[in-house]
Specification:
The structure is a single chain. The chain has about 600 residues and is of the alpha/beta class. The chain has 22 helices and 14 strands. Strands 7-6-5-11-12 form a 5-stranded parallel sheet, with helices on both faces. The chain has a 4-stranded antiparallel sheet with strand order 1-2-4-3. A hairpin with a 2-residue loop joins β3 and β4 (about 85-90). The chain starts with a helix and ends in a 9-residue tail after the last helix. The structure holds one RNA strand of 77 nucleotides.
RNA sequence: GGUUCGGUAGCUCAGCUGGAUAGAGCAUCAGCCUUCUAAGCUGAGGGUCAUUGGUUCGAAUCCAAUCCGAAUCACCA
């Protein structure tokens, strides 16, 4: 149990004993005490005033007295200022917390709760390489999965690959027309970039053809349909659906190139999946559910044979669920896949990490599932995140205005190398150790940068300004860890002992922050928000750094102090390491 | 037009389940390396919390309206 829960329990108990006639559901707030006042945690008394019909001062005095009397091991003293009861926790409590947990690598994690969650993330298209937006998605998905694991869930990471459809045919057609048999091998290009180039090529040609047609007096809408390259692409899509062997072969060949490229990128950013779904296998799913919906009168059929659902009563529109030719649409497939996931894994919750541009779609998906009375309907959760934009606006693959994932990773590693070389602290490292270090720091900076912001907010990335390595950043926390490690290396035969000395302000502050780790993980899990954790790790590092510069650890004033400070350093290192791991970031022993 | 989300320091963001004098980082300025890693620490300046009204002991936080920005409202995925 964390300390806030403990205080809440003890205070509620005191209230019940002091004011037996009071309502037992009486609620009160516990805050961290502001630094300008004396104390650790504060009970806000105003909410009790009305219910207990006494002045805040009197309530504070009575509760304070009772707390000290009944829990002398927990509370040292209290003071009341206006309506605030400030409680000071005993040094003994903090020291024993530290002594018990300083070397516990599981500190802050919850026991398994028996619930199973699937987190779907990444979900790339196989017609272009990954970009910065995908990185935000990948880091978010990965981190949320880890945070859920730490708070007791069994987690399955899944990915749906959008490997078919008109957009895939576009790069296929462009390759057929313009590649002249070129391959990633022959051009020494990474497969996903190679294919992406033909997707861009398609759009260039398509645009030119539209312009040409419009110049001859055809309307834009007609020109878009009549452009020869688009007609070829439409034909190819039909051939694909008919399973024409040459098209299937081309499709498999080009997708294969992309997967090779993706593998490299995923490996470099540390993304992985327990289960990968391919849309080419799932796009026919959901049709049986349409029939079920018709039988239940949730759906209705129009004269042309298309099937619809009317969501106007819920403030949405009419939505098509099956085309008149009997083929399924996006939403139908998704309902089918949702069912498959549930049937296959018996999951208790299904989390979709998808950009906020699909808020409407996901709302419809859940609503339809609910109207159909599907058992997993309420367990569908859309973890919606904001787009990453450039100062010039949205990134567009087909116009080539994207920050490429591979390029950015390479750039971050190069910057890490540059900083490291300037500082010159690891000159004795082997070449392979250096490469690993640059990767750790570069990726750490990038992941932290993307995760420290509330997921639901859109972010603007300026490629002109490189991602920082100082201040509220990944490397700052990594550095704090490396520094602690450098001290601990010298204390290899350390044996922890309880301390008898009074805690100094900065010592206590670090322990106070360490104590909150478990509560922070739970908060991050509850809100599916890694930025809560990122902020916490930063403040913990800051408070440790302040302590570090002010007090010596190796040459402490006494053996007792030295022992205490080593415990403090060990526990901070553990929390930083485990916390960063939950963000998907490694910490180096030296940097 | 409907729906949803956002607007806090020059910039990037915390704080939002109402609580004490609104916090970080970057940038600017001033200090700190004969002692454990200066990717660090200490301090200064910088704010009409978009606007207006309401709710109350108390509002950046809740409610309403307005203004600005974004997403979305496809027989595309």
């Amino acid at each position: 149990m964390n300390i806030v829960q403990l205080i809440r329990e003890v205070v509620a108990d005191s209230i019940k004993k002091l004011y037996p006639e009071s309502d037992s559901s009486l609620d009160f707030q516990i805050n961290e005490t502001k630094p300008e006042f004396e104390g650790d945690y504060t009970i806000v008394l105003f909410s009790l005033v009305k219910a207990l019909k006494k002045s805040p001062e009197m309530i504070g005095q009575e509760i304070g007295d009772s707390l000290i009397q009944k829990n002398p091991e927990l509370f040292e003293s209290f003071n009341i200022i206006k309506g605030f009861l400030n409680l000071t926790i005993t040094d003994a409590y903090w020291k024993s917390l530290l002594f018990k947990n300083h070397n516990d690598i599981c500190f802050g994690k919850q026991a398994m709760n028996g619930k199973k969650v699937m987190v779907e993330y990444s979900s790339p298209n196989t017609n272009k390489p990954l970009h910065l937006g995908h990185l935000r998605n990948n880091f978010l998905g990965w981190s949320v999965a880890e945070i859920l694991k730490a708070s007791g869930y069994e987690v399955l990471k899944s990915c749906i690959v959008n490997d078919r459809g008109i957009h895939i045919c576009k790069s296929m057609i462009a390759w057929q027309l313009y590649a002249d048999g070129a391959t990633p091998e022959s051009t020494h290009k990474k497969g996903d970039h190679f294919v992406g180039d033909y997707y861009v090529k398609f759009n260039d040609v398509y645009k030119a053809q539209i312009a040409e047609l419009m110049a001859s007096g055809i309307s834009e809408a007609d020109a878009e349909k009549q452009a020869p390259i688009m007609q070829k692409t439409q034909q190819m899509l039909q051939d694909w659906e008919a399973g024409v062997p040459e098209v299937m072969q081309l499709w498999q060949k080009m997708n294969g190139w992309v997967y090779e490229g993706f593998d490299v990128t995923y490996k470099s950013i540390g993304s992985d999946f327990d289960k990968t779904y391919y849309e080419s296998n799932t796009y026919l799913l959901g049709k049986d559910i349409v029939q079920e919906g018709l039988d239940k009168n949730v759906f209705y059929k129009k004269d042309d044979g298309s099937v619809w659902i009317d969501l106007t009563a819920d403030g949405l529109d009419e939505k098509l669920v099956l085309r008149k030719d009997g083929t399924s649409v996006y939403i139908t497939q998704d309902i089918g896949l949702a069912k498959q996931k549930y049937d296959e894994y018996k999951i208790d919750q299904s989390i979709y990490v998808i950009g906020d541009e699909q808020n409407y779609h996901m709302k419809v998906l859940k609503l339809i599932a609910q109207k159909l009375g599907l058992p997993y309907a309420d367990d569908i959760y859309h973890l919606s995140y904001g787009m990453v934009e450039l100062p010039t606006g949205k990134m567009k693959s087909r116009e080539g205005t994207v920050v490429d994932a591979d390029d950015l990773v390479a750039e971050m590693k190069a910057t890490a190398q540059q900083h490291t070389e300037t500082l010159g602290k690891v000159k004795d490292f082997e070449p392979n150790e250096l490469i690993e270090l640059y990767e750790t720091i570069g990726l750490g900076a990038m992941k932290f940068y993307l995760l420290r912001v509330d997921p639901k907010k859109k972010m603007i990335f300026n490629p002109e300004e490189s991602i920082d390595f100082h201040g509220f950043t990944g490397p700052f926390i990594q550095y704090t860890f490396a520094r602690i490690n450098s001290i601990l290396r010298k204390e290899s035969n350390f044996v922890a002992a309880p301390s008898n000395e009074t805690l100094l302000k900065l010592e206590k502050e670090v322990i106070y922050n360490l104590e909150q780790f478990g509560a922070i993980i739970m908060e991050a899990a509850k809100t599916l928000n890694p930025s809560v954790l990122a902020n916490y790790l930063f403040y913990l590092s800051k408070s440790f750094n302040s302590f570090y510069t002010e007090h010596s650890i190796g040459n402490a004033e006494s053996e007792d102090k030295k022992n205490l400070r080593i415990q403090l350093s060990m526990m901070t290192a553990n929390v930083l390491k485990n916390g960063m791991q939950l963000l998907g970031i490694n910490v180096p022993n030296r940097m």
